[in-house]
Every structure is written in C-alpha cells, then in structure tokens.
Design brief:
It is built from three helices and six strands, in the order ααβββαβββ. The chain is α+β, with helices and mostly antiparallel strands. The strands form two sheets. It has a three-stranded antiparallel sheet, with no helix packed on it. Strands 5-4-6 form a three-stranded antiparallel sheet, with no helix packed on it. The N and C termini lie far apart (about 115 Å).
Length: about 160
C-alpha cells in the first residue's frame, strides 16, 4: 500500500512540473550586453590611465595623508587639519624621485657601504670617554659602561 502511495505521489509531482511556465524573455539583448561590457572596459582603461598619471612623480605627493581626506597631509606624521584623524604614511612618496627624471623606474640604487669601525691602523672612529676598550663606527653609547662615545680625531690621521 505504501508503495502505491509513494508511486502515485511521485507521478503527481512530476506531472505538475511538466506544466511549469516558460522562462521569461531576457531584458537585454546580446548586443546591449556587449555595449555595456565595452563601456565598462573603456572606463577601466581610463581609470588605469589616471592612476598611472597620478603615480608619476609630482611635487604634490604627500609623505603622510589623511585616509578620509587624501588631499590633506604633510611631510610629518600628525593629525588631519579637517577631521583630526591620524595621518597615514604614504609609501608612494618614497617611490617617486625627488626631481622628475632624476631616477629611471626600476633602477636599482646601491645601498651605501657603512663606514668601518676602525681604519687601516686599527684606530676606532668613536671611542669611550671613560677609556674602555673598543669603540664604534658611529656615535653611540659604550657597550661596556654605557657612556656616550666621543669622536676620535686620530682615526682620520
């Protein structure tokens, strides 16, 4: 009995699905879709060109800028003059040459070689003001006593 009931229910459901309405006609034709896609591609190309033009070195690239007001900012970290929000560091500032044409894109600038702590004679550039052994290549604090290192003129002789 159950088998007959399940079989009749299945037939009834499939019979009702056969009478489902046709899919409605599309609102846009294929040529309209193509026109919208072409316009979208043109807008994307225009935005890419504007972004490329904006990335070219210009004196208006800010070192720090407001994320809410991108045209507001300055050369030092601080607060936005309009909303008081903390200014955000702009990495693009470091990617642009100081003067247009000063550096070519993709050019690798060599890192400066740090000065040696001692000269050829073994004399330290900076030595401890307390006379502790050792020294350094730059002004710092003594590794032994913590006092500031003093410039040693004998390094240059």
């Amino acid at each position: 009995m159950r088998l007959i009931f399940l079989l009749s229910l299945t037939i009834f459901l499939f019979a009702n699905c056969a009478d489902s309405p046709e899919r409605p006609a599309p609102v846009m034709t294929q040529s309209q879709h193509d026109a919208v896609n072409a316009e979208s591609a043109a807008l994307q190309a225009q935005k890419a060109a504007q972004a490329a033009a904006a990335s070219v070195a210009s004196p208006s690239v800010l070192h720090y800028y407001c994320s809410t007001h991108p045209t507001k900012g300055g050369d030092a970290q601080g607060a936005c003059p309009d909303c008081g929000q903390a200014l955000v560091h702009n990495q693009a500032f470091h990617n642009t040459p100081a003067t247009p044409g000063a550096a070519t894109p993709g050019a690798i600038t060599p890192n400066p070689v740090p000065a040696a702590a001692t000269n050829a004679a073994g004399v330290y550039h900076y030595t401890c003001s307390n006379g502790c052994a050792g020294g350094a290549a730059a002004q710092a604090n003594c590794a032994v006593c913590g006092n500031p290192l003093a410039h040693n003129q004998a390094y240059h002789n």
